[in-house]
Each structure stands twice: as C-alpha cells, then as structure tokens.
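hiii, so i know i said id send this last week but things got crazy w the move. better late than never?? heres the sequnce for the chain we talked about at the cafe, plus the structure i predicted for it. fair warning i was half asleep when i ran it
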Amino acid sequence: MNVRAAARDPSKLQIMYAIDETLRLPETELPWPAGFEGPRPVRTGNVAAPQLQLDV
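okay and structure toks below
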C-alpha cells in the first residue's frame, strides 16, 4: 500500500481507516440493533484508533 495514499502524509499514518476513507473513527454505541448472537450495545468506530501503536 502506498503510505501517501492511505494517510495523505506519512506522519499521520493510522492503524485503521473507514471503508469510505474517513480518517476519524469515533466510537459510538448503537442501542437498537443486536450484535452477533444478541449482545448489546453494538459499537461502531474504534476508541483506540488515535493511539500510537508500536507493535505489529
């Protein structure tokens, strides 16, 4: 993958992106749908997305 295409700037490379290339992935709880095999609440986004990841 081309780093500049993914992050637009190598210093802003993230661990994940939305499929529509959204860079911010705030975590949100959706209380109305049930998750796989019924658990609730369903969460979208990822609160850990802006963290610096030093492992692989």
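btw The chain has a mean pLDDT of 75. thought thatd interest u
miss u guys!!
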